Amino acid sequence: MFVPISDDNRLRHLPYQYVTVGLIAVNVLVYVFFTSGIFVDGLEPVAYSFGVIPAVFNDFRELPSQYAVVPEGMTLVTYQFVHGGFLHLVSNMLFLWVFGDNVEDAMGHWRFLAFYLLCGAGAGLAHDLVQPRSVAPLVGASGAVSGVIAAYLMLHPKVKVWVLVLWRLPLRLPASWVLGFWVVLQVVMVASTGSDEEVAWWAHIGGLVTGAVLVLFMRRRGVPLFDRGLVTATQPNRR
Fold first, then answer.
1. Is the pTM of this model over 0.85?
2. Any alpha helices (H) in the chain, and if so which ranges?
3. InterPro entries from the entry (predicted)?
4. Neighbours of 142 (CB within 10 A)
5. Residues 155-213: tens digit of each pLDDT
6. How far apart are CA 196 and CA 194, in angstroms?
7. If one looks up domain 2-218 in CATH, what number appears?
8. Which residues contact 38 (CB under 8 A, 6 or more apart)?
């Protein structure tokens, strides 16, 4: 498995990735204060109050009044900031940290924020479509991050990414290898496990598709796809 740790891809349009860092900060704060158990043991009520519950979303079941904190439509946004465990949080935020800054750079701050939330909403809807009667809350930023991954793969497939292979061996590989492997893994897991697993694989697919479509329209004017025009270092001619 590839674990990304950094990329060789400087910002071209923005001085700093404020939205990416802000999203990470909000996710971490929500986890620490509401679901980690450090201050309150609130994972279950938070998940049921702010997660996407397909059976409730589709009016097959009614949410108990103590959990009915926000309108069901709003949970397509709120679920993105709730994580069920430390590794769940860290893995999502690591991918967002490595790849989010350049997608934000390609779109601008506000369009990237809209892009991120729309990818998460698309992921939630995909999960809801596949499991319309599920009573398990969908939580986590994986769907939104999947959209970021799709956008980065379409924008910068040739950029080199530092990864840890099996959490130990550092390698510098093209983004197309690292993220392409991740995309293929999601498709394989959907095909092999179906929709009854603990991991919401269809939400990942929904986020990927949403991100791939939205980046076509939400990137800055003049920002190319697939690293067109990228100048790479070459060996000097020898005479």
1. yes
2. 18-30, 43-50, 54-57, 75-78, 86-107, 109-130, 142-155, 175-193, 201-218
3. Peptidase_S54_rhomboid_dom, Rhomboid-like_sf, Rhomboid_protease_S54
4. 24
5. 999 999 999 987 788 999 999 999 999 999 999 998 887 665 578 899 999 999 999 99
6. 6
7. 1.20.1540.10
8. 32
